[in-house]
Amino acid sequence: MDINRKELKRRAQSMRKRGISYTVIGRELGVSKSTLSFWLKSIPLSNEHRERLYTARIRNMSLGSQSNKERRRREVEAIIESAKAEISSPISSEAYRLLGAGLYWAEGSKGGAIEITNSDPLLILFMTDWFADIFKVPPVTFKAWLNIYPQQDDRELKRFWSSLTGIPISQFGKSFVKPISKGIKKNNLYYGTIKIRVPKSTDNKHRIYGWLQGALHRYKKRSDTIHNRWIHLRSIEKPVNLNYIRTMRP
Description:
2 domains; alpha+beta; four-stranded mixed beta sheet; Endonuclease I-creI; elongated; single chain
């Protein structure tokens, strides 16, 4: 071993005896971790040094995780801002009509009158305005119901949704209070969930689906072909609730 390597080894051993990590030693001396591992394997660490190195490692891992999250957050923001620039504002009347129809297709009731249920204030605000603009039905005629949790203030939440949508509080029905769950909820619905019903709207609901069919007609034949090929999946018998049958009168 030449003099320089002997000196590096001596300095590395001295630093390790002071409880300095391989990472810091390697960075300061320009020596690889594999070499340090060979040089320093016989040097024990005191309990105090072990505890300090462990604490530093956990802290660095936490900082690294936070740094990655922050970097990803900035990346996502940049993606969203770039995508926003791709949309002309205001959108065309046809795009506006199809946007509302698509949202209703995804989130709206499929039977009876027009109803939509969601917890996102932006979506509910858009759809309320959309119903009013497209079908010329004022929000003051809409009906609304909330799904909330026991710890939430029913009156305040109704005031919130009323101010957002323009639906009078007098048009809100009795809220459904969900029972307390034993599990841990990851998503907190701070405003609860609202269901909105547009009166006398069955025909308009069919118009919505007509617009969607008009926009998606090029996919209809292909969808029907595949659907017919797998029609046997619909022949599965529904399970029978034997406990319910036993309770029925003869």
